[in-house]
Every structure is written in structure tokens, then in C-alpha cells.
Write a structure and sequence with these properties.
Helix 2 packs antiparallel against helix 6. The longest helix is centred in the first third of the chain and has 18 residues. This protein has six helices and no strands. By secondary structure, the protein is an all-alpha fold. The chain has one domain.
Length: 117
């Protein structure tokens, strides 16, 4: 839509405009929604979507790790409850311990400095 940037590759256009790739923005939104579900901000039962990993011998990661649910059907593996678990479990403890949505947004942006959102 910007005529001077038509001939540039996608990543160069994003860099010049100060934007991030759509995939990164989607992951960020999914992580924020997961935070809302786990903390009860959304008025939905968390157990419908996620299962906390309570093995008792968690040596790595943070205290709110999620269990990956196995899915029989191909369509189920693209649900939020399956796609976000890996990204959520990779977050450090300080991000997961946020007390509000704005705090987790700021901490995610600091964790991924190249996101630029």
C-alpha cells in the first residue's frame, strides 16, 4: 500500500515500518490469552483448555508449565490449547509471574526485543 516500499522484500518493509512478522504477533496474542485463561481474568474454566504439569520434580522452566495433550485428530492439533503450550513452557519465570495483562505485555516485549510492537 506504500508505493515507495513495493519493491522491497517483506522483512525489509516490516523493518522500515517498525512492525513484526504476523507469526510473531499471533504468538504474542496467544500467550497473552493463555495468561488470561490461567489467571482467571477470562471467565472461562481453565481446565477446559489446559492441564498444569504437576509432576513434582520440575527442574527446568517455570512453576506454571502446561502439559501437551495428545490429539488423535489432525484438526485438534491447531487449537489454541495445543499450539501455545510449547511457547508458554519456554517463557522464563518472571514473565509467567506477571500480575496483570499490561505487565505480561511489557515483559514479553522485553523478552523478544526484535518484536518491535
Amino acid at each position: 500500500m506504500i508505493s515507495t516500499l513495493n519493491k522491497l522484500p517483506y522483512k525489509s518493509r516490516l523493518h522500515r515500518l517498525g512492525l513484526t512478522m504476523l507469526e510473531r504477533r499471533r504468538i504474542r496474542v496467544d500467550l497473552i490469552e493463555t495468561f488470561k485463561l490461567l489467571t482467571g481474568i477470562e471467565k472461562v474454566d481453565m481446565e477446559q483448555f489446559f492441564e498444569l504439569n504437576d509432576t513434582g520434580y520440575n527442574l527446568r522452566g517455570h512453576s506454571k508449565r502446561l502439559t501437551v495433550n495428545r490429539c488423535r485428530l489432525d484438526c485438534r492439533k491447531y487449537f489454541l490449547s495445543n499450539t501455545v503450550v510449547h511457547h508458554w513452557n519456554d517463557l522464563p519465570q518472571e514473565i509467567v509471574d506477571a500480575w496483570s495483562v499490561n505487565v505480561i505485555k511489557n515483559r514479553l516485549d522485553r523478552h523478544w526485543p526484535d518484536m518491535g510492537i
